[in-house]
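hey can u check if this looks right to u? its 650 residues, i copy pasted from the old doc so theres a chance i mangled smth
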Amino acid sequence: MRFISLIALSYFIAPANATLTATFSSGGKSVTEQVRMPALKVEAGESPAAGLAPGAFTVDFKGTLTIPKRYRVYFSYDIEGTATMKVSGEDLPFTDGKSERLRLNPGEVPIEVHYKSPDNGTGSFRLHWEERSEFLREPVSSTVFTRSDSEINAAHLFANHNCAQCHDTGDLGTHAMPELKYAGPNLTGIGDRTTEAWLTRWIAQPDKLKPSTTMPAMVDHTKPEGAQAAADLGAYLASLKTGATSPAPDQSLAQAGGAHFHKLGCAACHTKPSADEPDFDHKRIPLNNVATKFKGGTLISFLKNPQQHHEAIKMPNFRLNDEEAKSLAAYLTKESTGNHTPDPSEFPPGDTARGKELSASLNCAACHEGLEKATTSAPKLADFKDWNSKGCLGPDEKRGKAPRLNLTAEEKAALTPQVVPELKFDTVEAYATRQVESLRCASCHTHDGKADLLSAVHGETKSLIAHIEGHDERLDQSRPPLTHMGAMLNTPFFESMLLGTANPRPRPWLEMRMPAFPLHAKDLAAGLARQHGLGRAEPGKEKPAADQVKIGEELVAMTGYACVTCHAQNDKPALAAFEVQGINFGEVHKRLRPDYYHQWMFNPARMVSNTKMPRYTNPDDGTGLRTDLLEGDAQKQFEAIRAYLQSLQK
């Protein structure tokens, strides 16, 4: 057994902020990116990494493992291709896909993996390790690598700010970033939904009302002609009506709406509607302008279907019922009244005809349906030689009539012609990384060891449920972490969760609910799995062996591991789920990938640190606690339980 001492490591240990990076090389080009774990999967005809064309490739993973206690481990690969590995700068030999046993002391241990794909450009790789008593053979997880803030993703900025809507990119091919096709809100009938005063303020200074917006400032409101232009555009947009009307929210429902605001965890992404200052630290979206924005009952309609007029909106669909939508709208309207952001300028009366002409000359229809067709066009992307000398990305004195983008100087500098290959060659892994950030998934879910934001800010809205007696006596309200989700869920179920079609809800006792992200469901589910080096997975359809089902049923019973205490079995309720409830056993087979299931069963707290699920293996040797069944072999016992769970699926 080899021994890695901390003294020997002192020459190799990376700084405490070391991250796991992967350098992909193909066709004479290379890209380096921060990755979550040493894993990959590339199907035929796919790009190996964002910015590289399909073809044979190599990858060099470099990172530092954080070891919490002394481990004696074996490393192994799941691989299509070839690989070599170094630990603390020394080659680690493998025999039949498995290394010799290696002792790792607590601290930081540098590793390197060199991977080479097959000649056809496909490939897959997952690095595993195992420690007899601590954990089964499992993938080396993202949680053992130190994470740092990501560098500016220029391609993400380009797509997120809808640059391709104005600047013709030409044919980028079939591997291009999906976001390049996303557009802004459809403004057909916007005058039915939104007030002229809010539209004028928004056009004048959108980042004042929403600091994180990607909407550019199309006018300079600090000049008289700019203030007039904002007013004219506001008047034109306010004139776009279909005649639809609906009653305003009933203010008597505001208290119930406030309770829903807290229960649904809205504070993860929004400040309270009574807060008149933005939360710049956490980039939460202000709600203090709601009362001055929405007309009549249009806020109710928006809350029930945020995607109705903007498919790519980041606001998810919570599938609210009528009572929830009406009361939430009442709360938001009541609490934001009188707290709106002051006008950035004095605006003269607007002129609809001038606004219509201005909309056409500013090419607003490039991003928005329902407007006058453009009379001008922006330069094609290929015509730019220097992106940063003038125009949108240039200094203010050389911007001319180009819009003012809501970008920092560093972000503008990052947008150069070098971004084009990433626009052209994208991967679902990269897409998932971008969308986890854009959709603020980590605001509600812990991710790669980083705490979720909601747990820190939820107390801000607790007073909204103070009138509800016994509210603190609920079942445990913990939300599942995002860290292992791509390796945990079968693809159809994962997609159904993101589409909002999963029925029944897997955790019906949670007051919060997983909202729907319909535009992103398929690629996000695929991308999170690919980050673990996994492809699509379907629940098995084979009939489980009857003898295994019988043993599994015995193991989950009160005379076995007493799983039925917390877990229902289809229509049979859990026997004593007082503080904690588990997933209904009838739903498990369609949800969980088998490998994750076995990792979870061996040591649940290793997967979710705050879980209430007990451990049913002996910490000393990993055997099952029921030594009288299947020779005490934990893996055989857990496989028998899995057979029983499969038999329950309807």
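Residues 224-238 form the longest helix (15 residues).
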